[in-house]
Amino acid sequence: MASLGESNPGMRARVMAGLAQHRAWAETGWGGASALAAEAIELARRNGDPRVLAAVLASATYALLGSARVDEQRVLLDELIDLAIAVHDNWILAEGLS
Questions:
Q1: In whole angstroms, what is the distance from residue 63 CA to residue 29 CA?
Q2: Which residues contact 78 (CB under 8 A, 6 or more apart)?
Q3: How confident is the model at residue 5 (pLDDT cuts 50, 70, 90)?
């Protein structure tokens, strides 16, 4: 993460979300990934690029698959679907509906 620096917040948010997804599935479970995922989502929101936010939200929801945190996953999916509709992007919509 340190090598990414602060110059490209969109890329940093995507990498953080991917790392959170990896940690949730392969290492520590959602407990060890939740703070990183939340930070990635916040960074993506501040970045302002809807495609970055969509990728980060999708990674966060995939990280939650199979966990007991269904309500949290649903909130993220609803945001992803709303985002897809707002930017008229069927690919993002498919991510949110799958």
A1: 9
A2: 96
A3: low
